Amino acid sequence: MAKGDSSKVDKQPISMLADRVLVHIPVEGERRSKSGILIPATAQVSKRLVWAEVVASGPHVRSIQPGDQVLFSPEDRYEVEVQGDEYILLRERDIHAVASERNDEGTGLYL
Predict the structure, then answer these.
(1) Please, are residues 18 and 62 in contact by the beta-carbon 8 Å criterion?
(2) Model pLDDT for residues 29-73, shown as the tens digit of each residue
(3) Residue 9 confidence class, pLDDT cut points 50, 70, 90
(4) Cβ distance 72 to 49 under 8 Å?
(5) Which of 27, 87, 89, 96 is 20 to 30 Å from 81 at the Cα level?
(6) What is the C-alpha separation between 78 and 106, in angstroms, rounded?
(7) Which domains are delineated in the chain?
(8) How far apart are the C-alpha atoms of 59 and 73, rounded to whole Å?
């Protein structure tokens, strides 16, 4: 491959370090409130927590695995682009809740 030829760029594997969690937020468009009010995608809602899907986690992450849904504050995030896709990088301590098929904790709450 010639120097400067970017048409054949090899994708390198990425490993998360320490307690970091890489998540992907589905693209949200307009949504409706329970009462039927249309909320545009550009509307800012203060103090609203966000759900996202875990893509990868570091070796020191204890209770989260890829495929889980996690709840976090948008203020506690770092946005990153990896191989052309947008992701968010979080610390495990910044995650408020986990929804997964397996429920190891046995809290009795279902989301």
Answers:
(1) no
(2) 566 667 877 767 666 656 778 889 999 999 999 889 999 999 998
(3) very low
(4) yes
(5) 96
(6) 31
(7) 20-27+47-99 (2.30.33.40)
(8) 23
Question: Minimal CA–CA distance to 53: which of 96, 78, 24?
Answer: 24
Residue 103 to residue 81: CA distance in whole angstroms? 31
SS3 state of residue 50 = strand
- Helix, strand, coil shares, percent, the chain, to 5: 5, 35, 60
Neighbours of 53 (CB within 10 A): 14
Phi and psi based region of residue 34 (left: phi greater than 0; alpha: psi -120 to 50; beta: remaining) = alpha
Given a contact cutoff of 8 angstroms between Cβ atoms, the answer to whether 50 and 25 are in contact is yes
pTM > 0.70: no
